[in-house]
């Protein structure tokens, strides 16, 4: 199976990239941030917490499903990279060719973008970008028109995929495969979530008009955990330590998402800013800690699981706080029904 894709898989794209002006490469190095995992999960979390019914009939179900879709996409990437174990292009290895005109303040940033280790097939940025932006276009179905949403999603996903080739951290086949895997993951995850548009089942007019009202992201989260578990097994068998950690994070994210969703009814209002801001700080710290302490698998998995449970369960927190708030008039505790 690993022979299906060759380590020498370039098709001449490197020569084309080398002919580009340096300013174009720097611009594409910035574009690639649009599919950094931290950016995508931050974007999805904000949409999940704050989206209203102008964007979807059931914004909480829509948002959680989008998070589950991208979790599945990264699980597929982890399995693919561990399975094929193919190197990145030589341009991803140090030293970086930093433009002489680039300000010294941006030198470290640029080097971090154009240098990358780990395996290269399929592209995680292309996969995650395709999955995230296509999922957002589909689940928030009240924004713009369907054609505009899909066009915008496609433009951003392709731009991100192109950026990975331009900065020479991936071959063209890596990003094409990533786009395909990302799009396919969206279809499968939405099918698992019960989207009537994907299942093509007989649906009531209300379901066809508001397809997000019955979405259940839990099966997609659990699929991500299972695929990540398989990726961990493949990586462990191949002795790929870095991929074992990435797969472990995928397991924790899938399990954490499924657990967090059990605490949510799905019809909650948007999260108040006063709760969201400290929650973002806490979950962000947990994410940073998970990656900073990647040499301790137990700590990494624990921190990741806690962060994802917190993100997914947060919409239920305001109501739960209200259910146990002090009753100032009675001097006791209110059950929230007064």
**Overall helicity:** 55-70%
Number of DSSP E strands? 2
Q: Show unreliable segments.
A: 326-338
SSE series: HHHHHHHHHHHHHHHEE
**Termini, distance in Å?**
64 Å
Number of domains: 1
Instruction: Compute the average pLDDT.
Output: 89
Strand content: under 5%
Shape: globular
What does the radius of gyration come to?
Answer: 21 Å
List keywords for this structure.
338 residues; mainly alpha; two-stranded antiparallel sheet; 15 helices; globular; disordered C terminus
Describe the structure.
The structure is a single chain. With 338 residues, this protein is an all-alpha fold. The protein has one domain (15-325). It contains 15 helices and two strands. Strands 1-2 form a two-stranded antiparallel ribbon. A hairpin with a 4-residue loop joins strand 1 (326-327) and strand 2. The protein is globular.
Show the helix and strand layout.
Layout: H1 13-18, H2 22-31, H3 37-50, H4 59-84, H5 104-114, H6 124-139, H7 146-166, H8 172-193, H9 196-199, H10 205-209, H11 218-238, H12 241-262, H13 273-292, H14 297-313, H15 317-323, E1 326-327, E2 332-333
Antiparallel strand pairs: 1-2
Helix pairs in contact: 2-7, 3-4, 4-6, 4-8, 4-11, 4-12, 6-7, 6-8, 7-8, 8-11, 11-12, 12-14, 13-14
């Amino acid at each position: 199976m690993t022979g299906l894709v060759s380590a020498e898989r370039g098709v001449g794209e490197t020569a084309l990239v080398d002919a580009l002006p340096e300013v174009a490469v720097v611009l594409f190095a910035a574009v690639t941030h649009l599919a950094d995992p931290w950016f995508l999960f931050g974007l999805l979390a904000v949409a999940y917490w704050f989206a209203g019914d102008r964007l979807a009939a059931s914004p909480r179900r829509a948002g959680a499903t989008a998070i589950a879709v991208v979790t599945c996409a990264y699980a597929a990437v982890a399995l693919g990279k561990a399975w094929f174990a193919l190197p990145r292009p030589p341009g991803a290895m140090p030293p970086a060719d930093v433009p002489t005109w680039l300000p010294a303040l941006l030198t470290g940033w640029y080097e971090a973008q154009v240098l990358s280790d780990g395996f290269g097939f399929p592209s995680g940025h292309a996969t995650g970008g395709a999955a995230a932006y296509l999922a957002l276009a589909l689940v928030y179905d009240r924004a713009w028109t369907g054609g505009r949403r899909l066009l915008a999603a496609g433009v951003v996903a392709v731009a991100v995929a192109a950026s990975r080739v331009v900065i020479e951290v991936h071959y063209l086949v890596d990003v094409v495969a990533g786009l395909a895997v990302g799009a396919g993951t969206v279809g499968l995850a939405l099918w698992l979530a019960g989207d009537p548009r994907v299942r093509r089942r007989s649906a009531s007019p209300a379901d066809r008009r508001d397809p997000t009202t019955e979405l259940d992201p839990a099966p997609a989260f659990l699929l991500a955990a299972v695929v990540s578990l398989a990726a961990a097994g493949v990586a462990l068998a191949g002795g790929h330590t870095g991929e074992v950690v990435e797969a472990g994070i995928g397991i924790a994210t899938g399990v954490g998402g499924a657990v967090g969703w059990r605490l949510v009814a799905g019809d909650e209002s948007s999260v108040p800013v006063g709760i969201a801001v400290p929650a973002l700080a806490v979950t962000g710290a947990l994410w940073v800690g998970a990656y900073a302490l990647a040499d301790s698998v137990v700590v990494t998995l624990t921190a990741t699981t806690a962060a994802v449970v917190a993100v997914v369960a947060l919409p239920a927190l305001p109501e739960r706080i209200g259910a146990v708030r002090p009753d100032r008039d009675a001097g006791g505790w209110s059950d929230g029904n007064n």
